[in-house]
């Protein structure tokens, strides 16, 4: 097996197939993905009843449960399901049978496919395409199992349910796997066409975030994240509120400063005896007032003397 640390020219897709009649479409699916990705395949024992290995593309190696045991001879040898987990950028299980779904939801790992899933790095995408009989699809167990794997981050290759049609068993209803050309649209969802492994993208996330923050702080238009009108409005409101708070704080600070200066002036204008110090025009005004008081008292005194003098 090639070393998993070598950077691929194309994204690495691990295609897995389980024991459903829809496995007859696996050859077409492999050829579709080969147009843009490097492919390796994993097949369960029951799926081999529906696959003709001779019709698969020659450049798509297919691994089975037997390969898991025959590739390991002694301690130190590579473990196949671990190496496949390291090699792949994305995993696709199509079709996903009811039996394999139940195993994955329950955490079982009794074959190569379920061992890869149990060892999977869930920072990397894993897609499933359910395919089963209509009665099995409508069973409460199926709904529960789908909810379990959804919580673990599994992504479904159908918007709601598998398509409604008459399957091989003859029961008309849900449970049919999507057509290969529809599943092929996964390349538009995964974003792996550039050929960069998902792990490398994850490692560079922090650096990209820091760069974006620096651009925003520098006021560069190219670094601003795209926002909807609602987000922009909310951001503007927050900025206005923050500016108002700053203004109010500045006003309070200005008032406090004026009060402090006024108090200092009053303190300087007061002598040690507690009497205000009079300087300049203040002294002149007080002198005039004192003279006027004296004149008024003198006039009142004269008026009193005249009223008290007897008539002659």
UniProtKB/TrEMBL annotation:
Gene Ontology molecular function terms on file: FMN binding; phosphopantothenoylcysteine decarboxylase activity
Any Pfam family the entry gives: Flavoprotein
InterPro entries from the UniProt entry: Flavin_trans-like, Flavoprotein
Cofactors required: FMN
Top EC class for this record: lyase
Biased composition range(s): Basic and acidic residues: 224-233, 257-269
Keywords for the protein's UniProt record, in alphabetical order: Coenzyme A biosynthesis, Decarboxylase, Flavoprotein, FMN, Growth regulation, Lyase
EC number, as in UniProt: 4.1.1.36
GO biological process: coenzyme A biosynthetic process
Gene Ontology cellular component list: phosphopantothenoylcysteine decarboxylase complex
Domain named Flavoprotein: residues: 12-150
Pathway of action: Cofactor biosynthesis; coenzyme A biosynthesis; CoA from (R)-pantothenate: step 3/5
Annotated region (Disordered), positions in chain: 190-289
Similarity comment: family membership: Belongs to the HFCD (homooligomeric flavin containing Cys decarboxylase) superfamily.
Protein name: phosphopantothenoylcysteine decarboxylase
């Amino acid at each position: 097996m090639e070393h998993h640390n070598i950077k691929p020219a194309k994204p690495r897709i691990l295609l897995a197939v389980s024991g459903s009649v829809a496995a007859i479409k696996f050859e077409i699916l492999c050829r579709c993905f080969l147009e843009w990705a490097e492919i390796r395949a994993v097949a369960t024992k029951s799926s081999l009843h529906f696959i003709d290995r001779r019709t698969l593309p020659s450049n798509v190696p297919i691994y089975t449960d037997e390969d898991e045991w025959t590739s390991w001879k002694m301690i130190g040898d590579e473990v196949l399901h671990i190496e496949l987990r390291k090699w792949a950028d994305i995993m696709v299980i199509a079709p996903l049978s009811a039996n394999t779904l139940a195993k994955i939801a329950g955490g079982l790992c009794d074959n190569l496919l379920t061992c890869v899933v149990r060892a999977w790095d869930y920072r990397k995408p894993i897609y499933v395409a359910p395919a089963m009989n209509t009665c099995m699809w409508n069973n409460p167990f199926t709904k529960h199992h789908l909810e379990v794997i959804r919580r673990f981050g599994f992504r479904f290759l159908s918007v709601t349910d598998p398509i409604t049609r008459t399957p091989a068993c003859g029961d008309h209803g849900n449970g049919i796997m999507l057509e290969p050309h529809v599943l092929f649209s996964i390349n538009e969802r995964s974003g792996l066409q550039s050929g960069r492994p998902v792990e490398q993208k994850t490692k560079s996330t922090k650096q990209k975030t820091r760069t974006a923050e620096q651009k925003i702080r520098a006021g560069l238009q190219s670094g601003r994240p795209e926002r909807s009108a609602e987000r922009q409005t909310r951001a503007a409101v927050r900025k206005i509120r923050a500016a108002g708070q700053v203004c109010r704080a500045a006003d309070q600070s200005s008032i406090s400063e004026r009060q402090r200066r006024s108090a200092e002036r009053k303190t300087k204008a007061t002598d040690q005896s507690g009497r205000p110090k009079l300087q300049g025009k203040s002294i002149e005004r007080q002198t005039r007032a004192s003279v006027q008081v004296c004149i008024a008292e003198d006039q009142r005194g004269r008026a009193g003397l005249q009223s008290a003098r007897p008539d002659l």
